[in-house]
Amino acid sequence: RSSYSCCYFVLPCCFFDFHGKYSRRQSKKTQYREYLDFVAQVGSVCGFHVEEDCLRIPSTKRVSFVGKSRTYAAAERARIDQHITQFINGRRSCAVATCDRRVGFNHEDHCGGLCKEAGSEPAEDETETPGTIWMPGFQPREKVEQIRNCASLPRDFVDEVVLNVANLLLNAAPQKSCTDKQGGNMNTWNQGESLSLREVAEHLNKDTLKKLKSEYGGLQTLLKNNHQVFEVLNGRVHIRDWRKEKPPSKTKPEVKRRLSAEAFKTRLCWFFIHHPDGCSLPSEACPYAHGTEELR
Protein backbone atom coordinates (compact mmCIF):
# COMPACT_ATOMS: atom_id res chain seq x y z
CA ARG A 1 0.00 0.00 0.00
CA SER A 2 3.06 2.29 -0.05
CA SER A 3 2.68 3.23 -3.69
CA TYR A 4 1.74 1.67 -7.01
CA SER A 5 5.40 1.53 -8.05
CA CYS A 6 6.41 -0.32 -4.86
CA CYS A 7 8.06 -3.75 -5.11
CA TYR A 8 8.70 -6.06 -2.16
CA PHE A 9 10.78 -8.93 -0.83
CA VAL A 10 9.82 -10.79 2.34
CA LEU A 11 11.42 -13.71 4.23
CA PRO A 12 8.67 -15.09 6.53
CA CYS A 13 9.91 -16.27 9.91
CA CYS A 14 7.78 -15.89 13.06
CA PHE A 15 4.11 -16.83 12.74
CA PHE A 16 2.21 -13.55 13.12
CA ASP A 17 -0.98 -12.18 11.62
CA PHE A 18 -1.89 -8.46 11.43
CA HIS A 19 -3.13 -8.28 15.03
CA GLY A 20 -1.34 -11.08 16.87
CA LYS A 21 -0.06 -14.63 16.56
CA TYR A 22 -1.15 -16.55 13.49
CA SER A 23 -3.82 -19.19 14.24
CA ARG A 24 -3.60 -22.45 12.32
CA ARG A 25 -6.59 -23.45 10.21
CA GLN A 26 -5.47 -26.47 8.18
CA SER A 27 -4.11 -29.55 9.93
CA LYS A 28 -3.15 -31.20 6.62
CA LYS A 29 -0.29 -28.72 6.14
CA THR A 30 2.73 -28.06 8.31
CA GLN A 31 2.56 -24.84 10.30
CA TYR A 32 5.38 -23.37 8.21
CA ARG A 33 3.77 -24.22 4.86
CA GLU A 34 0.40 -22.91 6.00
CA TYR A 35 1.97 -19.64 7.10
CA LEU A 36 3.88 -19.31 3.82
CA ASP A 37 0.62 -19.71 1.93
CA PHE A 38 -0.94 -16.99 4.08
CA VAL A 39 1.93 -14.57 3.38
CA ALA A 40 1.65 -15.33 -0.34
CA GLN A 41 -2.10 -14.70 -0.13
CA VAL A 42 -1.45 -11.27 1.42
CA GLY A 43 0.74 -10.41 -1.56
CA SER A 44 -1.94 -11.55 -4.00
CA VAL A 45 -4.67 -9.59 -2.20
CA CYS A 46 -2.45 -6.52 -2.41
CA GLY A 47 -2.39 -6.94 -6.19
CA PHE A 48 1.04 -8.45 -6.83
CA HIS A 49 2.22 -11.29 -9.02
CA VAL A 50 3.79 -13.24 -6.13
CA GLU A 51 6.92 -15.25 -6.87
CA GLU A 52 8.38 -17.81 -4.43
CA ASP A 53 12.08 -18.48 -4.07
CA CYS A 54 14.31 -20.53 -1.77
CA LEU A 55 17.40 -18.74 -0.49
CA ARG A 56 20.82 -20.29 -0.13
CA ILE A 57 21.22 -19.45 3.53
CA PRO A 58 21.98 -21.64 6.59
CA SER A 59 18.46 -21.52 7.99
CA THR A 60 15.45 -23.83 8.20
CA LYS A 61 13.24 -20.91 7.17
CA ARG A 62 14.59 -19.81 3.81
CA VAL A 63 11.52 -19.59 1.59
CA SER A 64 11.00 -16.02 0.42
CA PHE A 65 8.44 -14.13 -1.65
CA VAL A 66 9.03 -11.40 -4.20
CA GLY A 67 6.47 -8.99 -5.67
CA LYS A 68 7.87 -7.17 -8.71
CA SER A 69 4.78 -6.46 -10.79
CA ARG A 70 1.10 -5.64 -10.25
CA THR A 71 -1.98 -7.56 -11.34
CA TYR A 72 -3.99 -4.37 -11.96
CA ALA A 73 -3.67 -1.03 -13.68
CA ALA A 74 -2.76 2.12 -11.73
CA ALA A 75 -6.25 3.54 -12.33
CA GLU A 76 -7.76 0.68 -10.25
CA ARG A 77 -5.71 1.46 -7.15
CA ALA A 78 -8.64 2.85 -5.12
CA ARG A 79 -10.73 -0.28 -5.75
CA ILE A 80 -7.86 -2.58 -4.79
CA ASP A 81 -7.22 -0.52 -1.65
CA GLN A 82 -10.84 -1.11 -0.58
CA HIS A 83 -10.30 -4.82 -1.15
CA ILE A 84 -7.16 -4.72 1.02
CA THR A 85 -9.14 -2.91 3.75
CA GLN A 86 -11.77 -5.64 3.67
CA PHE A 87 -9.11 -8.32 3.93
CA ILE A 88 -7.38 -6.70 6.93
CA ASN A 89 -10.66 -6.08 8.76
CA GLY A 90 -11.70 -9.67 8.05
CA ARG A 91 -8.47 -10.97 9.58
CA ARG A 92 -9.10 -8.77 12.61
CA SER A 93 -12.56 -10.31 13.02
CA CYS A 94 -11.05 -13.78 12.74
CA ALA A 95 -8.49 -12.90 15.42
CA VAL A 96 -11.22 -12.35 18.01
CA ALA A 97 -13.24 -15.29 16.67
CA THR A 98 -16.39 -13.22 16.22
CA CYS A 99 -18.39 -12.21 13.21
CA ASP A 100 -18.66 -8.45 13.03
CA ARG A 101 -21.64 -7.70 10.80
CA ARG A 102 -20.36 -4.19 10.11
CA VAL A 103 -17.40 -5.58 8.18
CA GLY A 104 -19.59 -7.42 5.69
CA PHE A 105 -17.88 -10.85 5.59
CA ASN A 106 -19.08 -14.41 5.95
CA HIS A 107 -16.89 -16.54 8.23
CA GLU A 108 -17.01 -20.27 7.62
CA ASP A 109 -16.10 -22.94 10.11
CA HIS A 110 -15.33 -20.52 12.91
CA CYS A 111 -13.26 -18.23 10.69
CA GLY A 112 -11.73 -21.24 8.93
CA GLY A 113 -12.76 -19.97 5.48
CA LEU A 114 -11.20 -17.05 3.70
CA CYS A 115 -12.94 -13.71 3.66
CA LYS A 116 -14.99 -12.94 0.56
CA GLU A 117 -12.93 -12.01 -2.45
CA ALA A 118 -13.15 -8.67 -4.21
CA GLY A 119 -16.62 -7.86 -5.39
CA SER A 120 -18.36 -7.42 -2.04
CA GLU A 121 -18.25 -3.78 -1.13
CA PRO A 122 -17.20 -2.72 2.40
CA ALA A 123 -19.59 -0.93 4.70
CA GLU A 124 -19.38 2.84 4.57
CA ASP A 125 -17.82 3.21 8.00
CA GLU A 126 -15.15 0.64 7.13
CA THR A 127 -14.05 2.33 3.90
CA GLU A 128 -10.67 4.01 4.22
CA THR A 129 -9.47 6.90 2.14
CA PRO A 130 -5.82 7.70 1.37
CA GLY A 131 -4.14 9.14 4.46
CA THR A 132 -6.44 7.45 7.01
CA ILE A 133 -5.42 4.76 9.48
CA TRP A 134 -5.38 1.28 7.92
CA MET A 135 -5.93 -0.61 11.17
CA PRO A 136 -7.77 1.47 13.80
CA GLY A 137 -6.91 0.44 17.33
CA PHE A 138 -3.71 -1.40 16.36
CA GLN A 139 -1.04 -1.17 19.06
CA PRO A 140 2.53 -2.16 18.13
CA ARG A 141 4.49 -4.05 20.74
CA GLU A 142 7.03 -2.20 22.86
CA LYS A 143 10.55 -1.76 21.52
CA VAL A 144 11.84 -3.69 24.51
CA GLU A 145 9.74 -6.81 25.06
CA GLN A 146 8.96 -7.47 28.70
CA ILE A 147 10.20 -10.81 30.04
CA ARG A 148 7.20 -12.54 31.60
CA ASN A 149 8.33 -16.12 32.31
CA CYS A 150 8.92 -15.50 36.05
CA ALA A 151 12.67 -15.24 35.38
CA SER A 152 12.72 -11.50 36.11
CA LEU A 153 10.89 -11.76 39.45
CA PRO A 154 12.94 -10.69 42.50
CA ARG A 155 14.96 -13.60 43.90
CA ASP A 156 13.70 -12.97 47.44
CA PHE A 157 10.10 -13.18 46.23
CA VAL A 158 10.72 -16.45 44.35
CA ASP A 159 12.55 -17.99 47.32
CA GLU A 160 9.67 -17.06 49.61
CA VAL A 161 7.05 -18.64 47.31
CA VAL A 162 9.15 -21.80 46.91
CA LEU A 163 9.55 -22.15 50.68
CA ASN A 164 5.83 -21.52 51.32
CA VAL A 165 4.70 -24.07 48.73
CA ALA A 166 7.22 -26.67 49.93
CA ASN A 167 6.09 -26.27 53.56
CA LEU A 168 2.48 -26.53 52.39
CA LEU A 169 3.19 -29.88 50.70
CA LEU A 170 5.21 -31.18 53.64
CA ASN A 171 2.47 -30.28 56.14
CA ALA A 172 -0.55 -31.15 53.97
CA ALA A 173 -0.88 -34.67 55.42
CA PRO A 174 0.67 -36.93 58.04
CA GLN A 175 4.32 -37.58 57.26
CA LYS A 176 4.67 -39.76 54.22
CA SER A 177 7.86 -41.72 54.70
CA CYS A 178 10.05 -43.33 52.13
CA THR A 179 12.82 -45.80 52.87
CA ASP A 180 16.25 -44.85 51.67
CA LYS A 181 18.08 -48.07 50.91
CA GLN A 182 21.27 -46.45 49.70
CA GLY A 183 24.21 -47.92 51.57
CA GLY A 184 21.90 -50.14 53.61
CA ASN A 185 20.46 -47.25 55.59
CA MET A 186 16.82 -47.43 56.64
CA ASN A 187 16.30 -43.71 57.15
CA THR A 188 12.93 -42.17 56.41
CA TRP A 189 12.58 -39.04 54.30
CA ASN A 190 9.38 -37.02 54.17
CA GLN A 191 8.17 -36.71 50.57
CA GLY A 192 5.18 -34.62 51.57
CA GLU A 193 1.83 -34.69 49.80
CA SER A 194 0.84 -33.71 46.27
CA LEU A 195 -1.68 -30.91 45.73
CA SER A 196 -3.36 -29.49 42.65
CA LEU A 197 -2.22 -26.09 41.39
CA ARG A 198 -5.60 -24.71 42.41
CA GLU A 199 -5.19 -25.97 45.99
CA VAL A 200 -1.71 -24.49 46.20
CA ALA A 201 -2.93 -21.15 44.85
CA GLU A 202 -5.72 -21.03 47.43
CA HIS A 203 -3.10 -21.05 50.20
CA LEU A 204 -1.09 -18.15 48.80
CA ASN A 205 -1.89 -14.56 49.77
CA LYS A 206 -3.55 -12.14 47.34
CA ASP A 207 -0.45 -9.99 46.80
CA THR A 208 1.59 -13.04 45.77
CA LEU A 209 -1.09 -14.25 43.35
CA LYS A 210 -1.45 -10.77 41.87
CA LYS A 211 2.28 -10.63 41.19
CA LEU A 212 2.26 -14.10 39.61
CA LYS A 213 -0.80 -13.34 37.51
CA SER A 214 1.18 -10.79 35.49
CA GLU A 215 3.56 -13.56 34.37
CA TYR A 216 2.91 -16.06 31.58
CA GLY A 217 1.95 -19.36 33.20
CA GLY A 218 1.96 -17.77 36.67
CA LEU A 219 2.39 -20.17 39.58
CA GLN A 220 2.96 -23.22 37.37
CA THR A 221 5.81 -21.52 35.50
CA LEU A 222 7.48 -20.44 38.74
CA LEU A 223 7.30 -23.98 40.16
CA LYS A 224 8.61 -25.55 36.96
CA ASN A 225 11.46 -23.04 36.91
CA ASN A 226 12.42 -24.40 40.34
CA HIS A 227 13.06 -27.87 38.97
CA GLN A 228 15.37 -28.76 41.87
CA VAL A 229 12.52 -28.62 44.39
CA PHE A 230 9.29 -29.37 42.53
CA GLU A 231 7.81 -31.66 39.95
CA VAL A 232 4.55 -30.60 38.26
CA LEU A 233 2.69 -33.51 36.66
CA ASN A 234 -0.85 -33.41 35.24
CA GLY A 235 -1.67 -30.23 37.13
CA ARG A 236 -0.44 -31.56 40.48
CA VAL A 237 2.58 -30.32 42.43
CA HIS A 238 4.98 -32.80 44.05
CA ILE A 239 8.21 -32.37 45.96
CA ARG A 240 10.93 -33.88 43.81
CA ASP A 241 12.59 -37.02 45.17
CA TRP A 242 16.05 -37.10 43.63
CA ARG A 243 16.48 -40.78 44.48
CA LYS A 244 13.91 -41.55 41.78
CA GLU A 245 15.68 -39.52 39.11
CA LYS A 246 17.29 -41.56 36.35
CA PRO A 247 21.10 -41.47 36.44
CA PRO A 248 22.80 -39.72 33.49
CA SER A 249 23.05 -41.96 30.45
CA LYS A 250 26.52 -43.37 29.81
CA THR A 251 25.79 -43.29 26.09
CA LYS A 252 25.62 -39.49 26.03
CA PRO A 253 28.00 -37.77 23.61
CA GLU A 254 31.30 -36.75 25.19
CA VAL A 255 30.49 -33.02 24.93
CA LYS A 256 27.16 -33.41 26.81
CA ARG A 257 28.77 -35.58 29.49
CA ARG A 258 31.49 -32.97 30.00
CA LEU A 259 28.96 -30.11 30.25
CA SER A 260 26.91 -32.12 32.76
CA ALA A 261 30.00 -32.75 34.88
CA GLU A 262 30.97 -29.08 34.78
CA ALA A 263 27.50 -28.08 36.09
CA PHE A 264 27.84 -30.42 39.10
CA LYS A 265 27.63 -28.65 42.50
CA THR A 266 27.49 -25.10 41.15
CA ARG A 267 24.41 -24.30 43.30
CA LEU A 268 23.46 -24.96 46.89
CA CYS A 269 21.11 -27.87 47.61
CA TRP A 270 17.70 -26.52 48.61
CA PHE A 271 16.84 -29.70 50.54
CA PHE A 272 20.09 -29.64 52.52
CA ILE A 273 19.23 -26.12 53.71
CA HIS A 274 15.42 -26.17 54.06
CA HIS A 275 13.99 -29.70 54.21
CA PRO A 276 13.39 -30.94 57.78
CA ASP A 277 15.04 -34.27 56.92
CA GLY A 278 17.82 -32.72 54.85
CA CYS A 279 18.68 -34.01 51.40
CA SER A 280 17.52 -37.50 50.40
CA LEU A 281 20.88 -38.11 48.70
CA PRO A 282 24.33 -38.36 50.27
CA SER A 283 26.64 -35.47 49.44
CA GLU A 284 28.69 -37.40 46.87
CA ALA A 285 25.56 -38.36 44.89
CA CYS A 286 23.72 -35.03 45.02
CA PRO A 287 24.25 -32.74 42.01
CA TYR A 288 23.95 -29.73 44.33
CA ALA A 289 26.36 -28.52 47.01
CA HIS A 290 25.75 -29.55 50.63
CA GLY A 291 27.19 -26.37 52.11
CA THR A 292 29.18 -23.49 50.67
CA GLU A 293 32.46 -25.41 51.03
CA GLU A 294 31.33 -27.80 48.27
CA LEU A 295 30.44 -25.08 45.74
CA ARG A 296 32.45 -25.22 42.53
UniProtKB/TrEMBL annotation:
Signal peptide: none annotated. One of its GO terms (molecular function) is tRNA(Ser) (uridine(44)-2'-O-)-methyltransferase activity. It catalyses: uridine(44) in tRNA(Ser) + S-adenosyl-L-methionine = 2'-O-methyluridine(44) in tRNA(Ser) + S-adenosyl-L-homocysteine + H(+). GO terms for biological process: tRNA methylation. It comes from the Eukaryota. It is found in: Cytoplasm. A zinc finger (C3H1-type) spans 263-293. Keywords: Cytoplasm, Metal-binding, Methyltransferase, S-adenosyl-L-methionine, Transferase, tRNA processing, Zinc, Zinc-finger. Residues 263-293 form the C3H1-type domain. The keyword Signal does not apply. Belongs to the TRM44 family. Adenosyl-L-methionine (AdoMet)-dependent tRNA (uracil-O(2)-)-methyltransferase. This is tRNA (uracil-O(2)-)-methyltransferase. It comes from Pomatorhinus ruficollis. The gene is Trmt44.
